[in-house]
Amino acid sequence: MNAPPAATVTGSPLAMVARIVPIVAVAMLIGVWGRELPVPVEVVVVGLLAAAVLAAVHHAEVVAHRVGEPFGSLILAVAVTVIEVGLIITLMVSGGPATASLARDTVFAAVMITCNGIVGLSLLVAALRTRTARFNAEGTGAALTTVITLATLSLVLPTFTTSARGPEFSTPQLAFAAFASLILYALFVFVQNVRHRDYFLAPGARESRDGEEDDTHAASPSNRTAMISLVLLLAALAAVVGLAKVESGTIEHSVAAAGLPQSVVGVVIALLVLLPETLAAARNARRNRTQISLNLALGSAMASIGLTIPAIAVASIWLSGPLVLGLGATQIVLLALTAGVGILTVMPGRSTLLQAAVHLVLCAAYLFLAANP
Question: Where's the Sodium/calcium exchanger membrane region domain (predicted)?
Fold first, then answer.
């Protein structure tokens, strides 16, 4: 998740709004907790929920920029994962057995949206600007390989194992998948930020003595700014989880009233959590930083599996009901197609409008089939 810290400039309009939103969101949470809400207030709560997600990621980026790599990527990934896991667990607790597959649906949605939607959008924006989008095939290929492996271990294998009934892992299998996911994610972060950092820079990019690319970067925030952002980050995370709890029933009822399958709830969570990453990836692609866009997309997919699955595995100790992780046949086909197309896109180290369109069509196909299985 090597996003440039352009959005972390103190004093910018975004920074000022990001400082206000967590405070307003926490105040709103205190005011509406445990109450029946009229529709206008629910609309405001949903808007604040989305704004709090954006604010949380912004403050995580500020703290990450201050501490540097590799800890910066970990802070940002953990912040996003806390939001994702908090939303999943909140809805699973309130939804009962009907939400047994919510973790699977959310993680799979994140993989499909990042590997097809964000990747496709990034390649499209870059190709429209420079005709051919160029990136480092070594680093991008390593990231894609890790994502495919994590997705297969965590989401495909439960469909075919026989120790537990249905598309579920037995307890030892779930523990192994969670441990393997953590190990692979931690090793990738080490390789990306320490051992082979140059693999994840744009082709021909030079690094300065402090390890950053020669692109224009914002100055590192002060200790005071970083501490303020840390406090506001914690407040925003608490507000997101709390407001999600407030709105959990409304979200589920709205999906059911629209005649949509329960898996759409996972898509909504993934879209909400990935909104900041999508905006950042598109912004970097527009600035001809395709490599950073792909790092963001694939890094988000990796964190969604490598950190969310272990967290859900631990939470399953006290969550009642089954934990369904295995994908269905249609989902497996889409994942296999995504893996194949992704490999062919990455191998040359360059991409045109055609590859971008293929990824975007795959994302559209996933969203359509999620609503119309």
Answer: 44-192, 229-369
Tell me how far apart the alpha carbons of residues 328 and 9 are, in angstroms, rounded to a whole number: 44
The single residue listed with the structure tokens 């898996």 is: 263
The closest of 118, 113, 95, 111 to 146, measured between CA atoms, is: 111
Q: Do the beta carbons of residue 325 and residue 312 sit within 8 Å?
A: no
Nearest to 359 by CA among 340, 331, 333: 340
Strand partners, 351: 133
* Among 74-78, 108-112, 359-363, the least confident range: 74-78
Contact yes or no for 118/274 (Cβ under 8 A): yes
pLDDT at site 244: 77
- CA–CA gap between residue 304 and residue 294 (Å, rounded): 15
User: Which residue has tokens 């970097």?
Assistant: 284
Q: What is the DSSP letter of 134?
A: E
Three-state secondary structure call for residue 48:
helix
CB atoms within 10 A of CB 13: 8
Residues 116-153: tens digit of each pLDDT: 999 999 999 999 988 888 888 888 899 999 999 999 99
**Domains of the chain, start order:** 5-213+221-371 (1.20.1420.30)
Place of tokens 């506001």: 232
Structure tokens that stand for 284 in this block: 């970097």
**DSSP string of 73-114?**
HHHHHHHHHHHHHHHHHHHHHHHGGGGTTHHHHHHHHHHHII
Cβ-contact 242, 35 below 8 angstroms? no
Distance, in Å, from the CA atom of 166 to the CA atom of 254, rounded to the nearest integer, reads 28
Q: Cβ-count burial of 10 within 10 angstroms (0-12 exposed, 13-18 middle, 19+ buried)? A: middle
pLDDT value at residue 354 = 93
Query: pLDDT tens across 214-271, in order?
Result: 444 556 788 888 888 888 888 888 888 788 778 777 777 787 787 888 888 888 888 8
Q: How many CB atoms lie within 10 A of CB 56?
A: 29
- Asked whether the bond before 70 is cis by omega within 30 degrees of 0, the reply is yes
Any bridge partners for residue 350, and if so which?
134
Structure tokens at 50: 């989305």
The one-letter amino acid code at 138 reads E
Top pLDDT among 12 and 142 is at 142
